[in-house]
Fold this sequence. Notes:
Elements: E1 2-7, H1 12-22, E2 27-33, H2 42-45, H3 61-64, E3 69-72, H4 79-83, E4 92-95, H5 104-111, H6 118-122, E5 125-126, H7 129-136, E6 141-143, H8 147-161, E7 170-176, H9 191-194, E8 199-201, H10 208-220, E9 226-232, E10 239-245, H11 253-264, E11 270-272, E12 288-294, E13 301-307, H12 311-325
Parallel strand pairs: 1-2, 1-3, 3-4, 4-6, 5-6, 7-9, 11-12
Antiparallel strand pairs: 7-10, 8-9, 10-13, 12-13
Helix pairs in contact: 1-12, 8-10
Amino acid sequence: MITCGIVGVTGYAGMELLKLITAHPRLQVACVMSDSSAGNRLSDLYPWMETGALTLEPFNVENVKRLDVLFLATPSGVSSQYIELLDTFEGVVVDLSGDLRLTSEAYTTWYNRAPVKASTQAKAVYGLTEWNRESVQTASWISNPGCYATAVSLGLLPFLHDSLIEPDDIIVSACSGITGAGKALSAKTHHARSNENVQLYKIHTHQHIPEIEQTIRQLTGVEATVSLSTHLLPINRGIMATMHVVPTVEQTEAEWVDVLHRAYKTEPFIRVQQGEPEIRTAVGSNYCDLWVYKDQRTGRLTIVSVIDNMQKGAAGQAIQNVNVRFGLAETLGLNAQPQYI
């Protein structure tokens, strides 16, 4: 068995990781950590989940030495505190926060806090599995992509890779469920405000904007400019990203759809779904559902990407990366079908 530890198991992403690892045939939760809840039994926090006799421990480097994999399911700025202590850790670190995703300069600008050491950030592999699988296979540090960045990048990359759309005119409107904002309560996520409401937030300042642009640059060599507006929906989970782009060639809609089919024909978690996209076709699963529409009137294309922000946008993708890293079947432990209803 591959032994795993989760730091931040009391958060939404940590809870999702716990659920997935518990059901995984080759992974085993050996250590759960939370500085704020240390000493509590996991079964007391999650009485509805079969968690065994695990007790929450404070983070300590000595506690993790025996582990094969350490998941950091902690917020940006918190993960970095643990990352700085893990230089001698011999296992694989998977960070679900944004602390390893950007260069030091970009991180300081967009997150407005001090970055991790540049040398630490540089050794982290960006875990967008479908596009960076070869690097993930040998990585000791994996930076799990952000939820919006996952949905948007998976939709755009096939077209940018083949220079089929203009890279400097990409407009994205994306919406997410409340869990995407994390477990900590805020004015925006308070039930009285979020229920029966749709809210724009982080207008032109969302930290996934530079992540998307950096991902495009690193994986295609293209310098892209992305305008991203993000919306908070009164649902628990799920993301829909709608991308409006300008094509560089003339093709029928069927030919544009075929671009997606060719790019992802062997990918188990990418589905090219015909019809009107819905968030609930992906919620509860590790799937990303994609489609592209041609606007005959304006000539623009509309690319739609749907994921579960807690699975493909966080914990599911983290498990997918661990499967790849340890030479397991990529779909192992991730075969759940969407909840839909």
